[in-house]
From TrEMBL:
Gene Ontology molecular-function annotations: copper ion binding; L-ascorbate oxidase activity
Xref: SUPFAM superfamilies: Cupredoxins (SSF49503)
Identification of the protein by name: L-ascorbate oxidase-like
Family listed: Belongs to the multicopper oxidase family.
Organism: Glycine soja
Secretion signal, residue range per the UniProt entry: 1-22
Length: 541
């Protein structure tokens, strides 16, 4: 349904209650999602466009802004957008994944009501249903600091979104059909920079000035390395955390991750290669873009600079060097280091291990042996309306079982206001990447081999980076700490998109007996209701 601005204002007050106050601005967006022909690798494909754009438009916002995004679905199938890294404080109903939100039907529309509460940084949105992500529909999200909050670097001369990702020449429908038939996907065909193939993407700079690049890997499976010929990358922010300002010659960006770097145009005025190549693959995929000086004296010259390929230690050492700037402000004036996560005792350890397997003759993937199957009703709506038979609490173990994989609607029960340790154990010979909606977590440790309690002796308990997506290297483990301060139903998934689609995900139910809106908002008044929630009533205005 279409809502006018006055109705939206009333609706937002209804949804957020006393938590939304007058000084938090509203930003309104109207998006029309359509199919359109795109040619990123020289072959015509059916792309998913937002307001005719591929990639979609950036969302510009400031800490605590309310984002009112009216999405018209002009596709011929249901559609949802999710907001990678936006925490949806107390409001998992708006998360835009199938476990929380009913799909927008073909020809219908839905107005997302989001607040970027207590957040800064670089993120992205993407289509979460079917295999739509392989067709586009993604775009950048930037959340700027409020004017009076200090930022630990000078304002850049320009601020660019750089969306990188691997890409198939096949249409998204063909890829989905392959997965539905039980087959694995082939290797991707190439890499895109801002939706363009080789030398199709340009970033314009002026000599002597410094620019911010917000880099997100919006691809389907591959870790990617980004570098710029003859230029250095100064890391300043990772998924909402200001980092120590370490300078790199190239940067590994694992699938689903976002980084901000500063690049100074301090070289002779000409064009320079921007290079993105795949990591940990037998066949290295590479693409190039152009960094173009405004007074350029000539085109790119020489070969594109090479980068790391299969070296795990190089990437692991870089990951360990990414640390929080403890003295910098985050979304609030107080320093990021004022939260001493290393002094808090954990109350529970959850060990997660992904695995492949065959179920009913078809390829599936699992976490702790459970391959997720979506029910007919979003889990969050079933929980809110107390609809029985949709999911079982405790349907996934908090330790690997070692058994064969099986199908179930896996929901992990956790308690509000607890401090929990998660360990991702990767026993496979490929790199993996995991994302948790609704949260930012501290990446306290990663190393090769099997995790044991003695591994805690190696943890970084002082300045570990806080983020929402982490890599797990082959035959390795990664440990994170999470303060469970956001009630709701939250998706934890593999960012290897075929694996996510075939079951390598689950939902974490962060539970409290409280019904106060200080802990969780009620179902939005305009919520779409489907499955066994059809015919239920949202709240009156």
């Amino acid at each position: 349904m279409t809502l006018n601005i006055a109705a939206l204002a009333v609706l937002c007050i209804s949804v957020f209650g006393i938590a939304v106050v007058a000084e938090d601005p509203y930003r309104f967006f109207t998006w029309n999602v359509t199919y359109g022909d795109i040619y990123p690798l020289g072959v015509r494909q059916q792309g998913i466009l937002i307001n005719g754009q591929f990639p979609g438009p950036d969302i510009h916002s400031v800490t605590n802004d309310n984002l009112i995004i009216n999405v018209f679905n002009s596709l011929d199938q249901p559609f949802l957008l999710s907001w990678n890294g936006v925490q949806q404080r107390r409001n998992s109903f708006e998360d835009g994944v199938l476990g929380t939100t009913c799909p927008i039907p073909a020809g219908g529309n839905f107005t997302y009501i989001l607040q970027v509460k207590d957040q800064i940084g670089s993120f992205y949105y993407f289509p979460s249903l079917a295999f739509h992500k392989a067709a586009g529909g993604f775009g950048g999200i930037r959340i700027l600091s409020r004017p009076r909050i200090p930022v630990p670097f000078d304002d850049p001369a320009g601020d660019y979104t750089v969306l990188i990702g691997d890409w198939y020449k096949l249409n998204h429908t063909d890829l989905k059909s392959q997965l539905d038939s039980g087959r694995k996907l082939p290797l991707p065909d190439g890499i895109l920079i801002n939706g363009r193939g080789s030398n199709g993407a340009y970033l314009n700079v002026e000599q002597g000035k410094t620019y911010r690049l917000r880099i997100s890997n919006v691809g389907l499976e591959n870790s990617l390395n980004l570098r710029i010929q003859n230029h250095k990358l100064k890391l300043v922010e990772v998924e909402g955390t200001h980092t120590l300002q370490t300078t790199y010659s190239s940067l590994d960006v694992h699938v689903g991750q976002s980084y901000s770097v500063l690049v100074t145009a301090d070289q002779p005025a000409q064009d320079y290669y921007i290079v993105v190549s795949s990591r940990f693959t037998s066949t290295v995929l590479t693409t190039t873009g152009i960094l173009r000086y405004s007074n350029s004296a000539g085109p790119v010259s020489g070969p594109p600079p090479g980068g790391p390929t299969i070296q795990i230690d190089w990437s692991l050492n870089q990951a360990r060097s990414i640390r929080t700037n403890l003295t910098a402000s985050g979304p609030r004036p107080n320093p990021q280091g004022s939260y001493h996560y290393g002094l808090i005792n954990t109350t529970r350890t959850i060990i997660l291990s992904g695995s492949p397997g065959i179920v009913n003759g078809k390829q599936r993937y699992a976490i702790n042996s459970v391959s997720y199957v979506a029910p007919d009703t979003p889990l969050k709506l079933a929980d809110y309306f107390k609809i029985p038979g949709v999911f079982r609490v405790g349907s996934i173990s908090d330790r690997p079982t070692g058994g064969g994989i099986y199908l179930d609607t896996s929901v992990l029960q956790t308690d509000y206001r607890t401090f929990v340790e998660f360990v991702f154990q990767n026993d496979e010979d490929i790199i993996q990447s995991y994302h948790l909606d609704g949260y930012s977590f501290f990446v306290v440790g990663m190393d090769g081999g099997q995790w044991t309690p003695a591994s805690r002796n190696t943890y970084n308990l002082r300045d570990a980076v806080s983020r929402s997506t982490t890599q797990v290297y082959p035959k390795s483990w990664t440990a994170i700490y999470i303060a469970l301060d956001n009630v709701g139903m939250w998706n934890l998934r593999s960012e290897f998109w075929a694996r996510q689609y075939l079951g390598q995900q689950f939902y974490m139910r962060v539970y409290t007996t409280s019904t106060s809106i200080r802990d969780e908002y009620p179902v939005p008044k305009n919520a779409l209701l489907c499955g066994r929630a059809s015919g239920r009533h949202t709240r009156p205005l």
